[in-house]
Structure formats: C-alpha cells, structure tokens
Write a structure and sequence with these properties.
Helix content: 25-40%
Radius of gyration: 29 Å
Strand content: 15-25%
Number of helices: 18
Number of strands: 23
C-alpha cells in the first residue's frame, strides 16, 4: 500500500478512488465509491496528488452530489433482467466532490485512481478551514455528528458582520436558530472579555414564545445535554434577560400587555414630550411609502414645529397655549392647525397644497387607535419606561405580538434609531449589540423607502464599525433590500419555498443544496460563510431554554423583579426627576 493509500490523510481506510471516466479539475471531481463503503451528501473527503520534485498536494472537499447506476445496462428495462440475475451488471455509486481547500495552493487536478478518504479529526478541520479560525463559535453538528463552527471574525465586525436567515415561516426555525446562535456567542467564550458586556436586542413578533428565554426548558433530556456538551456549551437558559411589553389598551396604570408571563415584565411607552422633542412623528408613517409622495414634506415640517414649540406640562405637553394630555388630543390639535388657513403655512410649509395636507391628515388620524397606548401623557415620566439596552440586561426582549402593524413599525423604528444613535455618540464598537429582527422583508422591503428602512440600511452599511450586528430573518430574501442582504457576511437558509429557492439571492447554494432546502426538516440549516467555499449543512440542538409557557421551568429569582418594581415606588405621573415627593 502506498503512502497515499495508508489512510493517514483522512484518518481511515479509503472510501473510493477518483473517477477516470469523468473530468477531474482542481475545483471539482468525481470519486467512485468502494463496494463496502458509502458517501452521503455533506461528507468531507480528502485525497492527495503526488508531484515530481515537489511536495504532495492535499485536495479536500465536500460531497455535493451522489449517484448510483448499473454498469453494463443499455436500456431502462434492463433493470428487471439484472434484478432477476439473467443479465450481468454491477451497481456503482459515485460522488461529486466540490473542493474546499488545496494545500499547498498548487491547483492541479487529483489523479484518476487516487484513493479518497473520509476526512476525520484534524483532516476534517483543515478541509473546512476550522484550523484557520482563531475564534470558533459552535453552530451545531454536521451530518457526521461532529461540531460545525462559525468564524467569529465575520460576525463581530472584525472582518465582516451581520447574519441573514431565510426560510418558510413555522418550518425553517429561523428564530430558534437566531437565539441559539446568540446563546453560543455569549456562552462559548469565543468573544473573550467582550462577551460580558455584549448585548442583544430581540423583537418578539409572534406569540409569546421568546418571553421565557431565562427559564430552563422542562423538556430538556440527557441526549440534549450531551449535544450541548459536544459543542462545548452548557445546557441552560439565558442567564440575564429583561422583557418589555406595551401597555394594555385603556389601562391607566400601564400594565404590560402579556398573558403567559406575569413577573419580570416592564411596560415601554413614550411620553408626549419625548414624542415631540425627539422628532418621532416620521415613524408614525413608517410603512415604506415612496418618499416622492408630497405628504412626507408635511410630516417633517410638523415634526420640526412640534420639536420647537411643545413644552412638557404635567405629564403631557403645552402647545400653542393648549394643554394636551393624550396622543388622540395631539392628533386632533395637529389636524386642526394644518387645516386652518391661518396656521397651515406655519405648520405644514408654504409650498404645500390642500390635497397633500388632507393626505397627511387622513394617515395621522388613522394612527390614533394604533398608537394611543404607546404615546402617553397620563403615566409616570420618572419611572423606567424606555427601551435602552445600555441600562438593561444582556438580552432585551421587546414583545410586539399584541400590537397592530403600524404600532410594530413605530416601536421597531424608534427603538433602532435610539440604539444606533447612542452607539454613534459612543463612537466605539465595544460593547457589541446584536439586533434580532424577524420579518425583515416588512421593515426593509426591496421597493420604496421609509424611516425604518433607512435605519436598517445604516446598520447594514455602518453598523460593523459601531459594533451593531443585525441578525435578520425573513421568509423571502428576494423581497428584502439588496444592500442589506449583500452586506450580510453570514447567510443561513432553512426550509425554502420552491419558487423562492430559484431566485438569484440563493445562488451561493449548489444545485443539490437548493433541492434539499425544499425538504429540510426543522432544525436543519445551510450556512454560508466567507472563508468556506461551500455552504455547510448542520443541525442545531433543541433549545435548552423554554420556548413557550408549557415548557417553562422555575425562573431564577432575579428575573421576577421588573425594572419598575426595582425603581422608586413613589414615581408620580408628570413628575420631573428633580421634583420632590408631594407629601
């Protein structure tokens, strides 16, 4: 047996030999599978090419297609005669190998007949470039049951940033993979000391499944614990979580609008004074309307007028000598002013027609029902009520599932704007902030423009330098703004719709993987990262944290106390920070 056949390259006996009846190139080749062996999709293999007067070249790759055929058959009907034993033929399997690494980089094809080994141990790590990753974040296990890693340099902004996850809703487990990836980032130790201060902001848009990240999963069993241990991770919940929810409709106390989780939840809202001073009016119109529509000029003009003239007053605001105590009152006052010929010019600008003003007024009036519980003049201004990850836990969950679409857009837009502005003012990439946002195609669609889309584009294009990492999930990457998708260094695909799989946005998937994405079961993902030329298929373990109320074990005691409960219990509606307690 020659040195190339000894099994030292891959760690085992040869599983086949390079085919001589199909072209072999430095980038792809076929191997005949030995009769007593098999190769499946995603297997990692390695072969060696001897060169005169030079050291041997090791060629490693991933199986991207497997076929079997009868050799000796001429007609389709021959299969019956061969099965009956009346016609001699031999079954031969062959696997297509897509090259992932050539070492040293002498790009020559493997020699026909050269033995091919299944890569194991260090040979597998070299084939998949894991040996070149200084910081390896475990993402799951491959088809061979061995861990698969993500290069942290392409996640935390050192060489790239952002993650795009695509797949069918309810089947592709996009959110589950995003939360597992966060868990691995925080608990694997690969961020070093930065992991302690790193933050995550998660928007929960479907049910209350993400409200129990800090509760252990009661269904956790020994095999799942072992699966986490294989990845070098502890099996447990997120240790530091803060949950925010909108106030209930019509509740004068601002009680969080959640049903399944009753402790450790804080309300979020904006006061009328904050709404005016911070210029939040454009986010009321954040429905990706074309910026060429003229009423957007009225929006910005009114927002500027509110910022200049609104003054805090007993929890509400004073505007034009009028005391305004609710969002509905503010809308009515603005509509009255823009429709009044005497004040229209001052509020809406000089070059705006009545039709444009009416278009603005109709949309503003339509927002009263959706936003009245989020923009308040009747709740305490001194108690914590804003979403600020810097003052929150390591993981901040913002529950949106009970809000109508317009209100969801408002919360996402304003929250991301505030967080990105805060990071800009800090001027440093550390600590990192991971933003997990599902339904990205709704907030940053391919066509049109909106304030939210502009913020998301800012994050995609400049977030890397500021330490803001977007983990976006969507059913259809083809409907998301191209610049956001192309700026994502990591692309992940779960189960896909057949029509979507044919779109050019998935051109990074080999043909066989595109077909497999139509069949992928929950928990199976295809991950593409820059330093590995072939997307890797992996399975990630069952969540060690509760994903619904029925799975939730006992919560740690520190999560049972909300920020509001920890703050001054005597916070007074309308009180300023320097006011004395009125008794």
């Amino acid at each position: 047996m020659t040195d190339g056949e000894s099994g030292t390259e891959g760690g085992g006996e040869p599983v086949g030999r390079v085919l001589g009846t199909a072209d072999a190139t430095p980038l792809s080749f076929w191997t005949a599978v030995a009769p007593d062996s098999f190769l499946q999709l995603d297997d990692v293999v390695v072969t060696r090419r001897e060169l005169p007067d030079r050291e041997p070249v090791t060629i490693a790759g991933v199986v991207t297609q497997v076929r079997a055929r009868h050799e000796g058959a001429q007609f389709d009907s021959d299969v019956f005669a061969i099965a009956d034993g009346t016609l001699p033929a031999q079954v031969q399997e062959a696997a297509e190998i897509t090259t992932t690494r050539v070492d040293p980089e002498v790009y020559v094809p493997p020699a026909p007949g050269a033995p091919v080994h299944r890569a194991e141990g260090d040979a597998r790590a070299r084939a998949l470039h894991f040996d070149r990753m200084e910081r390896r974040i475990p993402m799951g296990t491959g088809r061979d049951g061995v861990p698969v890693y993500l290069n942290a340099d392409f996640l935390d902004g050192q060489r790239g940033a952002h993650v795009s996850i695509s797949g069918i809703s309810g089947v592709a487990t996009k959110t589950s993979f995003a939360t597992f990836l966060l868990y691995s980032v925080f608990r694997s130790g690969q961020l070093g000391g930065d992991a302690v201060n790193a933050k995550a902001l998660i928007f929960n848009v479907k049910g209350e499944d993400l409200l129990f990240l800090d509760h252990p999963n009661a269904r956790l069993d020994e095999p799942t614990v072992a699966a986490y241990a294989k990845l070098g991770l502890p099996a447990g919940p997120f240790p530091d979580v803060r949950v925010y929810a909108p106030p209930r409709v019509g509740d004068p106390n601002g009680t969080p609008d959640v049903t399944s989780r009753t402790a450790g939840v804080d309300s979020f809202y904006w006061t009328l004074a904050e709404f005016c001073a911070d210029g939040l009016l454009p986010y009321v119109f954040a429905d990706a309307d074309d910026e060429r529509q003229q009423y957007t000029m009225v929006v910005h003009s009114v927002a500027a007028h509110l910022a200049r003239h609104a003054r805090p007053a007993d929890g509400g605001i004073s505007l034009d000598g009028v005391r305004i105590g609710s969002y509905g009152d503010l809308v009515d006052h603005v509509v009255e002013q823009v429709n009044d010929e005497e004040t229209r010019r001052e509020w809406a600008g000089s070059a705006v027609g009545l039709g444009t003003v009416n278009a603005f007024a109709r949309r503003l009036i339509g927002s009263k029902k959706d936003l009245a519980r989020l923009i308040r003049g009747d709740l305490a201004t001194r108690r914590p009520h804003t979403i600020n990850t810097a003052d929150s836990a390591q993981v901040t969950v913002v529950d949106l599932h009970n809000l109508p679409d317009r209100a969801q857009r408002f919360v996402v837009g304003v929250t991301l704007k505030n967080e990105f502005t805060r990071k800009e003012k800090a001027g440093t990439a550390k600590p990192l902030l991971f933003v997990v946002l599902d339904e990205l195609n709704k907030y940053a669609p391919r066509e049109g423009s909106s304030p939210i889309k502009e913020v998301l584009l800012d994050i995609a294009e400049r977030g890397r330098s500021l330490g803001v990492i977007l983990v976006g999930a969507q059913q259809t990457a083809s409907e998301v703004e191209r610049r956001i998708v192309t700026n994502s260094a990591i692309r992940v695909v779960g189960r896909l719709d057949p029509a979507e799989a044919s779109r050019p946005e998935y051109g990074f998937l080999p043909p066989a993987q595109r077909q497999r994405a139509l069949l992928a079961k929950p928990g199976t993902m295809f991950v593409n990262q820059p330093d590995i030329p072939v997307p890797l298929c992996l399975e990630f373990p069952f969540p060690a944290w509760a994903t619904r109320k029925s799975e939730a074990g006992d919560a740690p005691s520190e999560t049972l106390r909300s920020l509001t409960q920890a703050a001054d219990p005597f916070a007074v509606v309308g009180a300023r920070a320097d006011d004395d307690i009125p008794f």
